[in-house]
Amino acid sequence: MTNLAVSIELLDMPYLITRQLEVPAEIRLDHLHAVFQTVMGWHNTHLYAFQTDYAVYSVIDPDYPDDSLPADKACLADLLREAGPEGITYLYDFGDAWRHQISIGREVPAQPGLVYPRLVSGQGKCPPEDIGGTPGFEEYLEIISDLPAPAEYEELLDAYGTEFDCEAFDLARKQVLLAELIAAKFVDRYAWR
Q1: Strands 69-70 and 56-58
Q2: What's the pTM value of the predicted model, to 2 decimals?
Q3: What is the DSSP letter of 92?
Q4: How far apart are CA 9 and CA 104, in angstroms?
Q5: What proportions of the chain, in percent to the nearest 5, are helix, strand and coil?
Q6: What is the residue range of 55's domain?
Q7: Per-residue confidence (pLDDT) for residue 191, from 0 to 100
Q8: How far is residue 13 from each of residues 19, 36, 44, 136, measured CA to CA in Å?
Q9: Are residues 71 and 149 in the same domain?
Q10: Is residue 119 within 8 Å of 18, Cβ to Cβ?
Q11: Residue 132 in contact with residue 156, Cβ under 8 Å?
């Protein structure tokens, strides 16, 4: 089995939010989406797309046809064949438009006893869901840095709290969550051991 070193970075953020993984080249894109949701800290409540210069892979909705290709019928290796000079973008939540840059590194030989995909390292905490994209998140950070906030922000602070640690990243916890995802969804479909 061929594994690839994969880095995913959330773009347009006021600080670095990135994860480094080792991922099977044959992983289906809908499964890669689930992996990204888990390791980044998203909640998987919105649509997504993998975009290259030449193709878009997403969930196909028969009620809203577009030019997207089905993510559940393609794998990471297919995406790499179609990546042009701009590389690969992973878009999550079309409203908030969280853009992630995917960088593919070297091949990584599978090691006996390790389960793939696996999270190797990371940095930074993802913004809360449904906060209004980068502009809404930056406004939220500004509000909590200057408490007490005016009354018009009470609902926002009730929803997202008054504290947010941008540097928070618990590698061990994310690895446990990824192992649980693999055990629950993928272990019967792939021999990633």
Answers
A1: parallel
A2: 0.92
A3: E
A4: 12
A5: 30, 25, 40
A6: 2-125+167-186
A7: 46
A8: 14, 17, 20, 11
A9: no
A10: no
A11: no
Q: Is the dihedral of CA 151, 153, 158, 163 positive or negative?
A: negative
In a domain, 97, yes or no: yes
Domain match, 28 and 121 both: yes
Which pLDDT value is given to residue 38? 97
What is the b/e burial string over 120-145, where b = at least 16 CB atoms within 10 angstroms of the residue's CB?
eebebbbbbbebebbebbbebbebbe
pLDDT profile of the chain (193 residues), mean per 10: 93 97 95 97 96 90 79 93 83 97 93 90 97 96 88 89 94 96 74 43
Q: Would residue 193 count as lying in a domain?
A: no
Q: Which of 25, 36, 6, 22 is nearest to 79 (CA)?
A: 25
What is the pLDDT at residue 193?
40
Map residue 19 onto helix, strand or coil. strand
* Number of domains into which the chain is organized: 2
Alpha helices (H) in the chain, listed in sequence order = 29-40, 76-82, 133-145, 154-160, 171-181
78 and 154 co-located in one domain: no
CA-based Rg of the chain, rounded to a whole angstrom?
18
Beta bridge partners of 175: none
Identity (one letter) of the amino acid at 152? E
Structure tokens at 124: 């930074």
Name the β-bridge partners of 50: 57, 90
pLDDT at residue 143, as a whole number:
93
